[in-house]
Amino acid sequence: MSALPTVLDVDTGIDDALALLLALRSPELRVVAVTCVAGNVTLDRVLRNTLGVLTVAGAEEVAVAAGADRPLVRRLTTATFFHGVDGIGGVPLPDTGARVVDEPAAALLCRMAREHAGELNLVAVGPLTNVALACRLDAGFPRRLRRLVVMGGAAGVAGNVTPAAEANFFNDPEAAAVVFQSGAAVTMVGLDVTLRALFEAKRYRLLRDVLPGRGDAVARFAYGIMERYLEADLAAGLEGSPLHDPLAVAALAQPSLIRSRPLHVAVETEGRLTAGQSVVNLAGVVERLESRGDHDDVVGLTHPAPNCEVALEVETAPFIDLFCTRLGLLPD
Length: 332
Ligand code: BDR
Ligand code: CA
Prior knowledge:
Blueprint: E1 4-10, H1 14-24, E2 29-36, H2 43-56, E3 63-66, H3 80-83, H4 105-115, E4 120-124, H5 129-137, H6 141-144, E5 145-151, H7 167-171, H8 173-180, E6 186-189, H9 191-194, E7 198-200, H10 201-208, H11 217-235, E8 240-242, H12 244-253, E9 258-263, E10 265-267, E11 278-280, E12 286-292, E13 295-302, E14 308-314, H13 316-327
Parallel strand pairs: 1-2, 1-4, 2-3, 4-5, 5-6, 6-14
Antiparallel strand pairs: 7-8, 9-14, 10-11, 12-13
The chain binds beta-D-ribofuranose and calcium ion.
């Protein structure tokens, strides 16, 4: 099979950077552009980090577009505790001649979806603001995508920002709701699987003795940025760093690494305690109510049509092997 034309929508971010590197090192994918959205850090830093990561990988020719600098209606929540103030764990970025293109992210997404109609893949690993704006700009956009892999949400586990919500959906619930109602062929790679895709601290410690002095530039950079991420994840009580965004890339490159079910997903936009929750209908059924004057009555059952493939299982060891091999993160 020829390499899949793919756009990454990122809020770079340490795991976004790792996802970009994995995509660029995956022969199954051809990265045709990267669109940026505010999330883990503000948009200016996301752009700077994205250009820097592409330069580390020797991929300065990939077009980088600027997108939304805030969610559709809410205040932006950045995450410097996990990613560092610069979003990249304080690791210096190389000088780069690469520049952001003039075309705004949403317009670029719509144009590329037309140019590669039925063939373009989009891996969205930040708040879904840019993707929602593209859906609004061109109603045909979502159905022109071959596949939209979204890192976000949680079907059967707690959120990571609030008990209800995962960070990307928490940051822009209204955008996530637009995307899940858009008719796109969505695969949701949420916390159910990404929290089981841990880069364990003990594996990192094995690299500590060998990697800094050797390895290629990509391996050294990946190793450097993971240190900050790991510290924060250990402080959060995990045994390693969840490779949230790289798993979304891997789910496109090698779909057999995840197992998913077609399910209906809605995103909560109104709850005070639950904003950004992905409400996944695991049972496949809801009660149908009819008004009876002063009350409602359950009169039957309905089966909402699935709008998403929800990843529920992950092949952890093969995924970690793929990630480490492709990024050169291997001990002697
Ligand atoms: C997601 O939130 C961001 O902080 C990460 O980059 C990832 O996309 C995990 O909840
Ligand atoms: Ca991200």
